[in-house]
Specification:
Number of helices: 19
Oligomer: single chain
Strand order of the largest sheet: 2-1-3-4-5
Structural class: alpha/beta
CATH class of the largest domain: Alpha Beta
CATH superfamily of the largest domain: P-loop containing nucleotide triphosphate hydrolases
Number of domains: 4
Number of strands: 16
CATH topology of the largest domain: Rossmann fold
Length: about 475
Amino acid sequence: MKNKKILIADDDFNIIASLKYMLSEENFDILAMTTPNAVLENLKRESVDLVLIDMNFQQDTTSGSEGLQLVAAIQQFDDTLPIIVMTGWATIDIAVDAMRAGAKDFIQKPWNNERMLSAINTQLKLASIDKKCQRLHQENKLLRAQTLPESNGIIAQSPAMKTLLSSLEELAKSDMSILLTGDNGTGKSMLAAYVHQCSARADNSFVPVNMGAIPESLFESEMFGHTKGAFTDAKENRIGRFEMAEQGTLFLDELANIPMAQQAKLLRVLEEKKFEVVGSSKSLNADVRIISATNCDLAKAISEQVFRQDLYYRLNTIQLRVPSLRERIEDIEPLAKHFLQTFSAKYNLLAPELSAEAIDKLQQYSWPGNIRELSHLMEKLLFTCKKPMISARDLLLENILPGANAEEFNVTESSTQNTVLSLDEIEKLALVNRLKYHRGNATETAKSLGLSRSGFYRRMSKYGLD
């Protein structure tokens, strides 16, 4: 376990020597400064866990004003850093003023070693709890805005999925980067979470990031975090995805949608294992396992100079393709039944059975939307099928023929002209149809609709299609 680092500030070298000796014996790492300016300069460059400062320096030996100014300056720089103040000229007024300025505790010289160690350990523990609470708050805020994939109960009866799961279970034992490729809706997010749960990092966070949904201007803030006041709207400190995933797994979904300018920043973090929070010059360690996913042809993207080759090699320690649903015929029936039971429990409705003809029809369909399309179909049938048995006709799959050509797509899309549909319903239907036409390829769909990546994903999220 990494030693906690304490910064000591006092203009008396004997005091510094005594504190260094005592605290080093307790396995603390020590930085020692003799002036307030030196303290602030070092805090800009190095991360520390606690500051222990004298209230009086050479300019003034009794009033405590220098110490109060230093406490206020540290608070402005980092209001989460615990500060303990000490002085040989202790008065109630100075103690109260120090606590008001932001100090967490007050020690009178000459100190009692047990009292000093108790104060330090208490503040370190409280700071750790506060940071964990802040991290959990921001993780919960993030998770409320997105649905985490369920990684348990993966259905794999087909040879293709059995082989893939076997490979992932072996790879989970390592820390190597994994690149998952395959069509949209094939379950890449769920498989990434499965690798995390099988790994030695399972007790720490699994943090998924939809790279296509992050506006380019907020990339650094989202990924690396920012300090309060780093830019106009930065009203509080924010923890980035890398810090959230510390000692855990960071899942980069829709990898090909990262703008070129931001790819270089991501590459630097992956190479150096360090990053800086926006508004701070201090480097933080990035102990994360990277799993990424894309449905894009990255080799083509590299040749077109829209994706960095060096970033590709950094992320592509091993590449695995997730099979599409039409390559998993043996999994279609158990998946369909699983979704029916899941939605039945969710909505407290009795689940109808699938007839043999319906199962046969499901297995003949090409599933351009893959598992996601099958899930949505089963959810819909729970409400639209009023019989105890779902027939092949109830599926309504004959209206969306496998391998539909552009002309057929235009006919389907013309249903948006229905005069009873609301504007939102028309927009949602257009998104669904265009996604089917482009076989789930988000990049091509957004381009065909004249939308930016972030605009496309906002609409997907709005209608629950993400």
